[in-house]
Each structure stands twice: as C-alpha cells, then as structure tokens.
Amino acid sequence: MRIFINGDEVEIKEGACLEDVILFLKLTKHGLAIAVNTTVVPRENWQNHQLTDNDAVMFIRAAQGG
After folding, report:
1. Nearest CA-CA partner of 3 in 42, 34, 33
2. What is the distance, to the nearest Å, from the Cα of residue 46 to the centroid of all Cα atoms in its chain?
3. pLDDT in tens for each of the 66 residues of the chain?
4. What is the pTM of this model?
5. What is the pLDDT of residue 65?
6. Where on the phi/psi map is residue 59: left (φ > 0), alpha (ψ -120 to 50), or beta?
7. What are the CB-based long-range contacts (under 8 Å, 24+) for 9-17?
8. What are the boundaries of each domain within the chain?
9. Do the beta carbons of residue 17 and residue 48 sit within 8 Å?
10. Does domain 2-61 have CATH number 3.50.50.60?
C-alpha cells in the first residue's frame, strides 16, 4: 500500500496503523503529533487508526525556542 509521509511516497503493508509506521520509521513518540489527511489523530488512537492507500500522513515534532 502506498502512503505519503511528509510529502514522500512510502510503501507499507496493507492494514498498517499509525503505530506500525512509527515503529517502521524508528521515531520516538515524545513531542510527536500526527495528522492524517489534515486531521490530527489523538495519541490514544494511534494503535487503532488504520491507514488506507494514498493517505497523507504528517509527522509534526514539537520544538523549543524563542
């Protein structure tokens, strides 16, 4: 199945959820927010949010500064 992560095309297994993609990309969850097709997915739904072909997934990392 093909999805787009921050604009880049990525092949993942059918039926993958957001949690699977986080593990696949070896991301840490601390300070991470995820939107799928412009809708933010709450952290408690990452394990249950199944992705579909051509979904646009955006990973947003919190940053400090001033």
Report:
1. 34
2. 8
3. 999 999 999 999 999 999 999 999 999 999 999 999 999 999 999 999 999 999 999 999 987 766
4. 0.89
5. 67
6. beta
7. 12/51, 15/50, 16/50, 16/51, 17/46, 17/47, 17/48, 17/49, 17/50, 17/51
8. 2-61
9. yes
10. no
Please name the residue that has the structure tokens 């990452």: 46
* Alpha helices (runs of H) in the chain, residue ranges in sequence order: 18-25
pLDDT of residue 64: 73
| Length, in residues, of the chain | 66
pLDDT, residue 59, reads: 96
Strand segments, DSSP code E, in the chain are 2-5, 8-11, 32-36, 39-41, 56-61
* Strands across the sheet containing 39-41: 8-11, 2-5, 56-61, 32-36, 39-41
